[in-house]
């Protein structure tokens, strides 16, 4: 396609989904954060808001992600470690204390328990006096990439897909401004995929979600405008810029030609980007500032709607406030000082960028055709095909580093004898005990009969065909825990075990 015949904001959106892009509004600047208890994370959110972030991004701990309460035997030692611990509505209210949810956009990186966390968020907003229909934000809610690359799944794929389409249908009426899924290539790339594989497997997952929603009786234009995407930004600067352009074009054509989508917003790939955690090094951590700066610039030149910049110390520990502030300042410098936001698709028309865009689109399309021939994404996952392709690419990448064919500054070349010491974040060791104690207090004060009745109603709905979201909201409203709700669904759906 001749790029000079296409303008930003026009189908197939190679050059960006809006005519003005950042001239009228910069991307949403997020910093992914969450640790310990809700109070501790709330303090970090308030700090980041004071420093200029324009959207919150919530990290949850592994027990919350896996549908376990903080006092579950398997949660011991993991509570609040890689994100904030959320067990009940009381925790969610503390997490956003003093933060008006109607005025802020929030992204929540949560998948297996996404429906429950969305219910808790909506209830918290309502208790603040906000209207759910005006809430803006995103739940990741992308379970397929958990089977492919990440591993925080609970239920088998098919019932898990049912929960996702139930969220689509419920939110269309109850929270129409909410992005009900963020289809994630980020974790696919972190697991070791190539650039083209990231695009291909992300869009293959998107096809599976769209087909499931249509099979559930939803019209494509009723839910597709609220689909969003989440991509990695790796080190190959020009390739990453081209990747975003290729993904937008491939998605637009797919939605129009394959799914007959008519609404312009159904054709627009809106995406969040995050710089690549797997490229950060523990050695010479200040060098990560340069890596993140280049990756962030690639995301902006590629047309991201939202961006998180990793902190220099994330190969060592959770970010300190200082490191998180430096990462945010990186975005602010790109947005306000470099001038790149003054033009849409600044590198469009470059011979090399256009060739790369065409190549990535072609390679991704070939992968999607292969997956289609296997019977679709679920069949490809069950056969281990996608996982195997990623593992092979990861192995080859690591071999190149070990042989020295791929340079990692400070690791296999340009090492320094000096040990660079920077302040490290330390979790409060008493946080887990406080969280468990508060969970016990909630259980003691709630209406136990009401909780039991609502959990029973949820279980009965899961055995039938009702939309599960209203029942999940009712359970959460009665202060049923994340673990209790998840366990009722486990009772009906079972748990997934990788073959």
Lay out the secondary structure.
Layout (H helix, E strand, L loop, with lengths): L27 E6 L4 H14 L3 E5 L2 H4 L23 H7 L9 E5 L4 H15 L7 E4 L4 H7 L6 H18 L3 E2 L1 E4 L1 H5 L4 H21 L4 H4 L3 E7 L3 H21 L6 H4 L3 E5 L11 H15 L4 E3 L12 H16 L14 H23 L3 H6 L2 H19 L27 H15 L2 H16 L5 H9 L4 H12 L6
Parallel strand pairs: 1-2, 1-9, 2-3, 3-4, 4-5, 6-7, 7-8, 8-9
Helix pairs in contact: 1-3, 1-13, 4-19, 8-10, 8-14, 10-12, 10-14, 12-13, 18-19, 18-20
How many strands, which pairing sense, and closed or not: the largest β-sheet?
9 strands, parallel
| Tally of contiguous helical segments | 20
Which value, in Å, is the CA radius of gyration? 22 Å
Chain oligomer state: single chain
Give the beta-strand count. 9
CATH superfamily of the largest domain: Methylmalonyl-CoA mutase
Unreliable sequence segments: none
Identify the strand order in the major beta sheet: 5-4-3-2-1-9-8-7-6
CATH hierarchy: architecture of the largest domain: Alpha-Beta Barrel
Tell me the structural class. Answer: alpha/beta
Distance from N terminus to C terminus (CA atoms, Å) equals 43 Å
User: Averaging pLDDT over every residue, what do you get?
Assistant: 96
* CATH topology descriptor of the largest domain: TIM Barrel
Number of domains: 2
Would you list the SSEs in sequence order as H and E?
Answer: EHEHHEHEHHEEHHHEHHEHEHHHHHHHH
| Helix proportion range | 40-55%
Taken as a percent bin, the fraction of beta residues is 5-15%
CATH class annotation of the largest domain: Alpha Beta
Q: Which overall shape is indicated by the principal axes computed on the Cα atoms? A: globular
């Amino acid at each position: 396609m001749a790029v000079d015949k296409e303008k930003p904001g026009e189908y197939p959106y190679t050059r960006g989904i809006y005519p003005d892009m950042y001239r009228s509004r910069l991307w949403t600047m997020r910093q992914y954060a969450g640790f310990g208890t809700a109070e501790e994370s709330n303090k970090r959110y308030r700090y980041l808001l004071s420093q200029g972030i324009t959207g919150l991004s919530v990290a949850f701990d592994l027990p919350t992600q896996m549908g376990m309460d903080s006092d579950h035997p398997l949660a011991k030692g993991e509570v609040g470690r890689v994100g904030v611990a959320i067990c009940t509505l009381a925790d969610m209210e503390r997490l956003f204390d003093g933060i008006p949810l109607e005025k802020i956009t929030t992204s929540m990186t949560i998948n297996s328990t996404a429906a429950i966390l969305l219910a808790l968020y909506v209830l918290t907003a309502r208790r603040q006096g906000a209207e759910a229909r005006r809430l803006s934000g995103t739940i990741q809610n992308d379970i397929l990439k958990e089977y492919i690359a990440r591993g925080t799944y609970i239920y088998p794929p098919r019932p898990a897909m049912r929960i996702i389409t139930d969220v689509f249908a419920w939110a269309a009426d109850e929270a129409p401004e909410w992005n009900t899924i963020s289809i994630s290539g980020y974790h696919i790339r972190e697991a070791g995929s190539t650039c083209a594989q990231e695009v291909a497997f992300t869009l293959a997952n998107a096809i599976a979600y769209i087909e499931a929603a249509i099979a559930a009786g939803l019209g494509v234009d009723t839910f597709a405008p609220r689909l969003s995407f989440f991509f990695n930004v790796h080190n190959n600067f020009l390739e990453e810029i081209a990747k975003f352009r290729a993904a937008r074009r491939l998605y637009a054509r797919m939605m129009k030609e394959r799914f007959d989508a008519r609404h312009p917003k159904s054709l627009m790939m809106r995406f969040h980007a995050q710089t690549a955690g797997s490229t950060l090094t523990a050695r010479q951590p200040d060098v990560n500032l340069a890596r993140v700066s280049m990756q962030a610039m690639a995301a902006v030149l590629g047309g991201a709607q939202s961006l998180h910049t990793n902190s220099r110390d994330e190969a060592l520990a959770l970010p300190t406030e200082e490191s998180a502030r430096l990462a945010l300042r990186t975005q602010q410098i790109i947005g306000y000082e470099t001038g790149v936001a003054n033009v849409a698709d600044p590198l469009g028309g470059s011979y090399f960028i256009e060739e790369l865009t065409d190549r990535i689109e072609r390679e991704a399309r070939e992968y999607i055709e292969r997956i289609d021939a296997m019977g679709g994404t679920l069949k490809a996952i069950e056969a281990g095909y996608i996982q195997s392709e990623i593992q092979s690419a990861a192995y080859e990448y690591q071999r190149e580093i070990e042989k020295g064919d791929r340079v990692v500054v400070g690791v296999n070349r340009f090492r320094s004898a000096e040990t660079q010491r920077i302040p490290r974040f330390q979790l409060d060791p008493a946080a887990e005990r406080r969280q468990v104690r508060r969970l016990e207090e909630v259980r003691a004060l709630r209406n136990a009969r009401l909780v039991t009745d609502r959990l029973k109603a949820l279980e009965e709905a899961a055995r039938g065909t009702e939309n599960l979201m209203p029942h999940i909201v009712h359970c959460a409203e009665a202060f049923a825990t994340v673990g209790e709700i998840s366990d009722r669904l486990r009772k009906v759906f079972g748990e997934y075990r990788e073959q």
